[in-house]
Q: What sequence folds into this?
């Protein structure tokens, strides 16, 4: 009789362990969370992702108003396409935000070379009337995002164009 009770307690302990671990194992093996865009790591400006004529690099947040973003430069039909996607919330500012290509770098901005389509809903897409090769010939350049039209020198994000 003594050995039967010992095995009964062992069984109760096993059931308790399984009951505690089952939800964890179920969540780990069965429930798959789709990746969030913010969880995807984009290439850094020092190592651009270059595939054919496509380049991807990051915008860095300049102050507490922005967390930065991702820029994709691509070419379609001989025209450069610039797609910008801002990360996180744009705290304290309302849409739209002006975005520009400047000569120089974020550390030493020059004049505006090209004005891009406004950032609305944290996104901007601009098709330029020329190809990426012309942009390469204008390097160094930087992309800036301003807080607003009235505060266009208050940059919330900047990224050096790396090709």
A:
């Amino acid at each position: 009789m003594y050995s039967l009770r010992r095995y009964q307690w062992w069984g109760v302990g096993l059931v308790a362990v399984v009951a505690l671990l089952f939800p964890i194992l179920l969540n780990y093996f069965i429930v798959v969370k789709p990746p969030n865009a913010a969880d995807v790591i984009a290439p850094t400006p020092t190592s651009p992702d270059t595939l054919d004529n496509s380049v991807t690099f990051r915008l860095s947040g300049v102050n507490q108003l922005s967390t930065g973003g991702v820029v994709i430069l691509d070419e379609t039909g001989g025209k450069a396409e610039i797609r910008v996607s801002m990360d996180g919330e744009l705290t304290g500012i309302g849409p739209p935000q002006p975005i520009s290509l400047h000569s120089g770098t974020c550390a030493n901005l020059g004049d505006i070379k090209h004005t891009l389509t406004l950032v609305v809903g944290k996104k901007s897409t601009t098709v330029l009337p020329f190809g990426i090769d012309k942009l390469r010939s204008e390097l160094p350049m930087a992309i800036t995002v301003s807080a607003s039209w009235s505060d266009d020198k208050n940059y919330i994000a900047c990224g050096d164009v790396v090709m």
